[in-house]
Amino acid sequence: MATKLGPKLKPHQFVRTLRVTKAQEGVVDFELKIEKDHTNRLKIIHGGTIASLVDLGGSLAVASQGYYATGVTTDLNVTYISSGGKVGDTLTGTAVCDRMGKTLAYTTVMFWDKQMNLVARGSHTKFVAQAVASSTPFTVPEGAPVADGEE
Q1: Could you tell me the pLDDT band of residue 78, with boundaries at 50, 70 and 90?
Q2: Cβ atoms of 109 and 57 closer than 8 Å
Q3: What is the rounded distance in angstroms from the CA atom of residue 17 to the CA atom of residue 130?
Q4: Could you tell me if 94 and 124 are in contact, meaning their C-beta atoms sit under 8 angstroms apart?
Q5: What is the spatial distance between Cα 69 and Cα 43, in angstroms, rounded to a whole number?
Q6: Nearest-angstrom CA–CA distance, 151 and 149
Q7: What's the mean pLDDT in 13-25?
Q8: Which of 46, 69, 81, 138 could be cross-linked to 131 through a Cys-Cys bond (beta carbons 3.0 to 4.6 Å apart)?
Q9: How far is CA 69 from CA 35, 47, 62, 127, in A?
Q10: What is the mean pLDDT of the chain?
Q11: Half-sphere exposure of 15 (CA within 13 A, CB side)
Q12: Residue 104 and residue 29: Cα distance in Å, rounded?
């Protein structure tokens, strides 16, 4: 049985509409403008998109501690509370590094819709022992553009 699949979503397309709006040590705020590739057959944001954002957000929260390498996922959980929106809507998220140990990092990621209703919450545990041992603290390269959070 032959199946014709549509074009595959490339990784850079997934995050093309992702924007970090604020970052400080241990906390990263971001938003995703929802596109068709982020949705399911009901034309609302796909649960897999949110799960991927938990993974990405947790990694960003670890990176915000000053690490270039962020380890590997050992556990990821998502609780879906309500629909996160449709194409054209913006999903807002906050990722927090709750604890950074010598071997494991624990993160929490929360998501809100355009009315600031809680949409989903996720937890993400990362094995970071090798990343911490091999990573030097990250600093922004001299002359690199840095957003100030203002539009």
Answers
A1: very high
A2: yes
A3: 31
A4: no
A5: 35
A6: 7
A7: 85
A8: 69
A9: 29, 26, 9, 11
A10: 87
A11: 11
A12: 22
pLDDT at 151 over 50: no
Instruction: Dig out the tokens for 127 from the structure.
Output: 């094995």
Instruction: Say if CB 91 and CB 39 are below 8 A apart.
Output: no
User: What mean pLDDT do residues 92-120 have?
Assistant: 96
Q: What is the total residue count of the chain? A: 151
The DSSP annotation for the chain comes to ------PPPPHHHHTTTEEEEEEETTEEEEEEE--GGGB-TTSBB-HHHHHHHHHHHHHHHHHTTTBS---EEEEEEEEE-S---BTT-EEEEEEEEEEE-SSEEEEEEEEE-TT--EEEEEEEEEE-HHHHHHPPBP-PPTT-----S--
Angle at 89 between CA 88 and CA 92, to 5 degrees: 140
Alpha-carbon gap, residue 33 to 84, rounded angstroms: 11
Q: Which domains does the chain carry?
A: 14-134 (3.10.129.10)
